[in-house]
Write a structure and sequence with these properties.
Layout lengths: L7 H16 L3 H9 E2 L2 E2 L10 H23 L8 E5 L6 H8 L12 H9 L4 E9 L3 E8 L4 E5 L2 E5 L5 E5 L27 H13 L7 E7 L2 E6 L4 E5 L4 H15 L7 E3 L6 E2 L1
Parallel strand pairs: 3-5, 11-12
Antiparallel strand pairs: 1-2, 4-5, 6-7, 7-8, 9-10, 10-11, 12-13
Helix pairs in contact: 1-3, 2-3
Length: 281
């Protein structure tokens, strides 16, 4: 991306030159129209005012020339896209965003349909909202709101990244982000981006994953559930027993305190948070 320069003065000069060059071929038309009234010279006092059709023709030619000149001006290289400033992206690269929006560098700024570009972006499940604004003469400001992945669901084709609502944001062969894995007992046969998965157990797992953000989510490798009770597996193989879903936020706050206190103590293999006072084993 490159910064766009100030072309206002040069643009006015080019516009004036274009208008002049386009009007030159019509010089004789204007002269003849004004000089003659239906084939009789204007200096002939016997003729009456210019016929309305001649005046209309002159006006039409003038408007046509001005319109054509303006069109050529706005289609000129002065408005070739050189800079796109994206705000709000954390997971999507600028190149991906531009490709999704159907925007390429060098496109004429006025040929880009901003509403269409916004709709194209919002059609991707990773994008919650998008807004584009032209920045004359050669730029676009693009504000984007992404959906946040909180967990991976393993399945036969790889890993599905899910947001807190169970929406599949992307599918990949590898788990590229440091996110916990969740489980869904009855996985659908077809999992694709945009699919919304549901189930009471999955919903609670995703709620737990959301509560782990932002500091713990990278340390939890798995969120397991069995008969309404939930366990966490840490990256250092410590098992955390959460129990049922009552007081989840408070339990995770106690987990943060415990992890800070034990540091790198490798003798701890289990943290029981089912009671108000944590138990370490």
């Amino acid at each position: 991306m490159h910064g766009a320069g100030n072309h206002s003065s040069s643009g006015q000069l080019v516009f004036g030159n274009i208008v002049f060059l386009l009007l030159v071929p019509f010089e004789h038309v204007f002269f003849i129209t004004l000089k003659w009234r239906g084939g009789v010279p204007l200096d002939n006092p016997s003729r009456e005012a210019v016929e309305p059709s001649n005046r209309g023709f002159t006006l039409g030619v003038g408007l046509f020339c001005i319109t054509l000149a303006m069109y050529m001006f706005f289609q000129s290289a002065l408005f070739a896209l050189e800079e796109v400033i994206v705000d709000g992206n954390q997971y999507l690269r600028v190149e991906e965003i531009m490709s999704l929006a159907g925007i390429e560098m060098g496109m004429n700024l006025f040929d880009i349909n901003l509403r269409t570009a916004e709709e194209r972006l919002k059609a991707d499940p990773r994008v919650a909202d998008a807004h584009l604004v032209r920045r004359l003469p050669r730029g676009i400001d693009l504000k984007i709101k992404e959906r946040v992945p909180v967990a991976y669901l393993p399945f036969e084709r790889g890993f599905a990244a899910l947001d807190v609502e169970g929406r599949v944001l992307s599918v990949s062969e590898e788990a590229r982000l440091r996110l916990p894995q969740v489980d869904l007992p009855d996985k659908p046969s077809h999992i694709a981006p945009g699919t919304v998965l549901s189930g009471n157990a999955l919903e609670w797992q995703l709620q737990i994953a959301e509560l782990l953000r932002p500091d713990l989510i990278g340390r939890i490798t798995q969120i397991q559930q069995n008969d309404g009770r939930f366990d966490l597996m840490l990256d250092n193989r410590i098992r955390v027993q959460l129990g049922d879903t009552a007081g989840l936020a408070e339990k995770l706050e106690r987990l943060r305190i415990v992890l800070r206190s034990i540091g790198s103590d490798s003798s701890v293999t289990e943290i029981d948070l089912r009671a108000r006072t944590p138990v370490l084993r």
